[in-house]
Specification:
130 residues; alpha/beta; Protein-Tyrosine Phosphatase, Chain A; 5-stranded mixed beta sheet; 4 helices; 39% helix; 22% strand; globular
């Protein structure tokens, strides 16, 4: 397992996902399924922060369709934290993702720090952090 997943705040309105080590495709799929289970345990909207700064996660159309199958109805925005040099690539994948996985890519955002991700969720969606 090359990832970490946990609630990011006490209200359980944000799930924090972080790739560590050298993730493989099974890690992507396992992370999506584990995240979906967490979201299904609460009834309110849950946003996701995905930290991809130490690795480049390349998504294929098969991967996008797999992610689409596991999107719970209460999933909110998805904020991906990437290195600045990866922003253009992520925006390109976002455009493809919206066509192949409209639910998985319905509210994507890209930032370069975890703090920026949290601030975005506070500002845009009223998420509370202690």
């Amino acid at each position: 397992m090359s990832y970490l997943i946990q609630w990011d705040n006490e209200e359980k309105t944000v799930v924090f996902q972080q790739y560590i080590g050298n993730p493989v495709k099974d890690d992507l799929y396992d992370l999506a399924e584990e995240s979906a289970l967490m979201l299904k345990n609460v009834s309110h909207t849950v946003h996701i922060i995905i930290d991809e700064r130490i690795t480049k996660v390349n998504l294929t159309s098969v991967d996008i369709k797999h992610l689409e199958k596991h999107v719970p109805t209460n999933q909110g925005a998805s904020v991906t934290v990437v290195m600045e040099k990866s922003l253009a690539y992520k925006k390109y994948i976002q455009d493809i993702g919206k066509k192949l996985g409209p639910n998985a890519f319905k509210q994507p955002y890209h930032v370069t720090t975890i703090e920026e991700a949290r601030h975005l969720l506070q500002r845009q969606f009223g998420v509370n952090y202690p």
